[in-house]
Specification:
The chain is an alpha+beta fold. It folds into two domains: 1-210 and 245-319, Sandwich (Immunoglobulin-like), CATH 2.60.40; 327-449, no CATH class. Helices cover 25% and strands 32% of the residues. It has helices at 2-6, 11-16, 21-46, 51-65, 83-87, 109-115, 214-225, 235-239, 284-297, 405-416, 434-441; strands spanning 102-103, 128-131, 134-143, 147-156, 163-175, 182-194, 197-205, 211-212, 243-244, 250-264, 306-320, 327-334, 339-346, 350-357, 366-371, 387-389, 397-404, 427-428, 432-433, 444-449. The strands form five sheets. Strands 1, 2, 3, 4, 5, 6, 7, 10 and 11 form a nine-stranded antiparallel sheet that branches. Strand 18 (427-428) and strand 19 (432-433) form a beta hairpin. The longest helix is centred in the first third of the chain and has 26 residues, at 21-46.
Length: 452
C-alpha cells in the first residue's frame, strides 16, 4: 500500500512492519541518501515560495536517519573554541577547519559556563544565550563562497535525553545582503559530550540564502488573488521574478534559533495502536480513515516523540568569507535539449555544480549527479542537492551529469545502492562501470578538471 509509506503519521506503523535483516540493513544504509535527494528536489522547486515548508522537509530527513558523529576520545582540549578540532575528522564535510576558522570566544568561557546559573551565562559573552535552563554558545565560524559553518554547544541544566540523529535548530535568519528574512531548519551535526552537553557544527548553505523573492512573492499573491491555482503557477513563470544576489566578502547575520528539537531514541509507545486492525489487510482508504481516527484520539502523541525546547536564542555574527581555496570552472553550455551547466565551484570542503536550463525547460525534471576522478558517486551533503562534501574523494577531475529525474530515482540509482555494493567500487551490476551506465542514460555530461 503506497499511501501507508507516504503518510506523515505512520512512524509507529512503519516500526511494526517486519522485514528481512538484509533488507533492513540496506534501507538503513541508503535511506538518508534517497530521502535527501527526493526532498532536495522538492526544495529546489519550493524554497523560494515558502522557506518554512523547505525547513520541514529538510528536518524530517535528518531526524529519521542521521547518526551522531564520534568525538575523538583522546582529545583533552577544551570544548568551546575547539569544536572544529575535535569533530572535523568525522563531520560530513570533513577536513581541516582548524587552520581557517575564526574563534568567537575564549576557551576559558567553558569553566565560567559550568559555574554560572541560568541567565547569568548571558553576561559572559555575546555568543552565549540562555532560555529556560538551556544555554547555547556559538564559538567558531568559517565561511567560503558556498556555505557558512558555525560550531555550537548546547548545555542544559537538566540531563539531556538519548536522541536519534542530531538536534535540529529551527531558525530565523536575516542576512545583511538580503532584505528577505528567511526561515530554516539546520542540523547540529555532532555528539553528546556528557549528560548535559551536546556540541556540533551548523552548516548554512549560502546557495539557499542568496535569492530575493520579494517580487516573486508579490506576483504569487497577485496570482492567487485573481483566482489562480498552484498548478498554473509553473516554475518557469515564478523563477522569472526571482532576483539572484551576489554575496559580499563581508556580511552580517542576525540569527535567531527559535526552537531546538530532537527525536527521542526511546520514545513513548503508542497506546492501542492497531489493536483491532491488521495493517496488511487494510486498503489505502481504510488506512487513511484509521489514522484520522487515531490521530484525533491521541493529539499529543507526536509531540511526545521529540525533546523540544523553545527559544529564541539570538546572535549577531559578523562574517568574512575565505575564498583562498576556491576554484571556479566556467562551463556555460546548454545542449540541444536546452539543459547544461553554467559552472562548477570547488572549495576546501565542498564542490558544487550549477545546472542551467533554457526558458522552456523545468529544472525539476532533471537530477544532477557527480562522479569523482575514480568514477565513484559523490553523495550530496546536508543542504542543496548540487553541493557535495569532498572528504576523501579525488576531485582533481569530476564528471557531472544531468539525469532524467524519474529514471535516476527509480532505476539507475539502484545500481549503485544494490545491497553488498561497496561505495569504493566504481563497478556495478556484475562489473559494469557505473560511469558507463550514466554516459549511456544521461541527458547531459561534461568533464571538469581542476588545476590544484
Amino acid at each position: 500500500m503506497n499511501d501507508v509509506y507516504n503518510s506523515p503519521n505512520n512512524t509507529e506503523a512503519f516500526n511494526q512492519i517486519q522485514v528481512p535483516d538484509s533488507l533492513d540493513k540496506m534501507i538503513q544504509d541508503n535511506l538518508i541518501t534517497l530521502k535527501k535527494e527526493q526532498n532536495s528536489k522538492r526544495l529546489r522547486r519550493w524554497t523560494a515560495r515558502g522557506l518554512a515548508t523547505a525547513a520541514v522537509l529538510a528536518c524530517t530527513v535528518t531526524v529519521l536517519v542521521k547518526n551522531p558523529i564520534l568525538v575523538t576520545n583522546a582529545s583533552k582540549l577544551p570544548l568551546i573554541g575547539h569544536i572544529f578540532e575535535r569533530m572535523q575528522g568525522d563531520y560530513e564535510y570533513k577536513g581541516n577547519f582548524t587552520d581557517v576558522a575564526t574563534k568567537l570566544d575564549n576557551p576559558d568561557i567553558e569553566d565560567q559556563l559550568d559555574s554560572s546559573n541560568g541567565t547569568d551565562a548571558d553576561t559572559l559573552s555575546s555568543y552565549t544565550k540562555t532560555v529556560d535552563g538551556v544555554t547555547v554558545t556559538l564559538s567558531e565560524i568559517y565561511c567560503n563562497d558556498q556555505a557558512l559553518y558555525v560550531t555550537m554547544q548546547l548545555k542544559s541544566e537538566d540531563a539531556l535525553p538519548e536522541i536519534m540523529g542530531d538536534w535540529q535548530c529551527f531558525t530565523t535568519e536575516q542576512y545583511s545582503f538580503n532584505k528577505t528574512q528567511q526561515g530554516d531548519c539546520v542540523s547540529l551535526e555532532g555528539s553528546k559530550i556528557d549528560d548535559r552537553t551536546y556540541a556540533g557544527i551548523l552548516r548554512f548553505d549560502l546557495n539557499e540564502k542568496n535569492v530575493d523573492d520579494t517580487k516573486a512573492q508579490e506576483k504569487l499573491n497577485e496570482f492567487y488573488e485573481n483566482g489562480g491555482v498552484d498548478d498554473e503557477m509553473t516554475d518557469d513563470i515564478y523563477v522569472k521574478y526571482l532576483e539572484q544576489i551576489d554575496i559580499p566578502d563581508e556580511f552580517s547575520l542576525e540569527l535567531s534559533i527559535d526552537k531546538l528539537s530532537a527525536a527521542l531514541a526511546n520514545p513513548p509507545k503508542a497506546e492501542d495502536f492497531n489493536e483491532n486492525n491488521e495493517l496488511e489487510t487494510m486498503t489505502d482508504e481504510e488506512w487513511i480513515e484509521y489514522m484520522k481516527e487515531w490521530d484525533a484520539a491521541h493529539p499529543d502523541f507526536y509531540e511526545s516523540q521529540s525533546d523540544t525546547h523553545e527559544g529564541p536564542w539570538t546572535f549577531t555574527l559578523n562574517v568574512k568569507k575565505n575564498t583562498d581555496d576556491m576554484q571556479v570552472v566556467e562551463i556555460n553550455d546548454v545542449n540541444d535539449k536546452g539543459i547544461g551547466f553554467s559552472k562548477v565551484v570547488k572549495d576546501r570542503f565542498e564542490i558544487t555544480m550549477y545546472d542551467t536550463y533554457s526558458d522552456d525547460i523545468d529544472s525539476v525534471d532533471y537530477f544532477p549527479v557527480m562522479l569523482d576522478a575514480d568514477g565513484l558517486l559523490m553523495e550530496s551533503g546536508n543542504g542543496w542537492v548540487n553541493s557535495h562534501p569532498i572528504g576523501d574523494h579525488d576531485v582533481s577531475k569530476v564528471d557531472i551529469f544531468l539525469m532524467d529525474y524519474v529514471e535516476w530515482m527509480d532505476n539507475i540509482k539502484g545500481f549503485w545502492w544494490t545491497e553488498g555494493h561497496s561505495v569504493t567500487d566504481p563497478t556495478v551490476d556484475g562489473g559494469k562501470l557505473f560511469k558507463d551506465i550514466l554516459l549511456e542514460k544521461c541527458a547531459y555530461h561534461t568533464e571538469v578538471t581542476f588545476d590544484k
